[in-house]
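Worked example 2:
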Amino acid sequence: MNPTKTVASWTDLVQESEALRDDLSQAEVVTIWLGWHDVINLVMTLSDWSDAAHERIAAASECMPADFDDLLAAIAGIVPADAHVLIADVGIPPAIVEKWSGEPHWPELKQAMYDIWREGIIEAAETHSATVIHTHHALNGPNGVSVIHPEHMQPDNLHFNRDGHAFLAELHRAEDGLTDS
């Protein structure tokens, strides 16, 4: 699958792909980890904060809560009743935290680029009986300014490496009660 799809395009894929629908109809656990691809290019190419930058980023992220609701509704309509649907509230990649968290406009930028859709994930999960895996706090700390451990990241400081994915899988399993202990 293409990892650069937006939330809305994943919903389209769930609705259109018979193979994916078949997989979901037999799933015991569904893990959803997405969101940044709707706004990441805007954030990573940002050189300075301005009203225009804020408007572009907010416009890209403001539709995402409804998109997450649509995605979880589509999945909930397919998976078995006893399936575990897990959705992460992800975290902020180290490259973004390192570049922007010390700036005076960080709270405004964080709200526009992340908090809007993070809140949408939480609301959609409540509506569609999915479990939110709060990886944001585990990865970025309670204030959202801690940098994700470098041993979990690829050199681009945006994507997880094998150890990072293993760490995330364990967080998901533990939060949903799927661990043996």
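The mean pLDDT is 86. The first strand starts at residue 29 and ends at 32.
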